[in-house]
Predict the structure.
Amino acid sequence: MKKRGQFITSCLALMVLMTVALVGCGSNNNTSTNATEAPATTATTEPAAKKPTVAFVYIGPPGDGGYTYQHDQGRLYMEKELGIKADFVENVPESADAERIITELAQSHDIVFTTSFGYMDFTLNVAGKFPNVKFLHASGYKTAENMGTYFGKNYQASYLSGIAAGKMTKNNQLGYVGAFPISEVIYNLNAYTLGAQSVNPDVKVNVVWTNTWYDPTTERQAAISLLDKGADVLLAYQDSPATLQAAAERGAFAGGNDSDMSKYAPDNYLTNPVWNWGPYYVKAVQAVMDGTWKSEQYSGDMADGMVELAPFGNKIPDDVKKLVEDAKAKIISGELEVFTGPISDNQGNVKVQEGQKLTLEEVLGMNWLVKGVEGTIPQ
């Protein structure tokens, strides 16, 4: 280029006049002065952080409209924010097959997110074999130097859903379609019940366990059984909208879990807990890129936005909405803790003394049902 030739000629002239100029011109000999080209990178500029390869393991399909859908939305958010294209494997069972798939992904990825509780031990096993790979497991409690966990206090939103249910029931009979009788589902069922009782002390909650995360047929049958027993408001800890759809056919209100399911029956929709995984995925991957990642047990909440409440259905009255919103503000501020005593179990035993608050560890290990829940925990 002409401008580049003029620049080099000037440098040669200066070389004759002073030795110092030789150093100055020679050090910039590869720099273009063309205004259309990017400025030169100096020797002191640090190279851009290498973008890691990322993979996700899903329990269901991204189109389930619930739990996996929300994780996939989080993946897409992370891709957009960080310019990283992540891989995923869907419909991975919580069995030995999960360990095989996680192992295969660890061979070609720097970060592997495993998004369901049943992957915990399999993830831990693989983490021991690939110390240079970072593993992040959703909802579990086991960690390693290269494996952390992440989840959130979704029971806060379950409590708020219970407030709405407690006000909307006409016969004080609520229903809960539980996935598996594990602590994660138990403490959400309990929070739902406590929320309902906070505005309607006469409320009873009947629970049916499906032992499924995503099986619309089984979940629909469970919902119908609760409706047949007289429940007129349901909540489901499931990944499908089957419970909501079954309730709508009977003119009952219902909510689902994980995502906004109002589109499936807007006139019969209550509300329900919603996950917002995207900001956490950005934070975790960025930490790996920055070299600051460390194993931890991360628990998000309504205050940091990981846990949210879905919009209310079309027929939820304003006074009910206000009750829920007021309680939500207290939860976010820390004024309201869901599991604050006195709380008794459904066998009559005092589990939380008056004024006592359960620690997060105690909540995450919950294996009892609060007073007002009609049902048992299968052994």
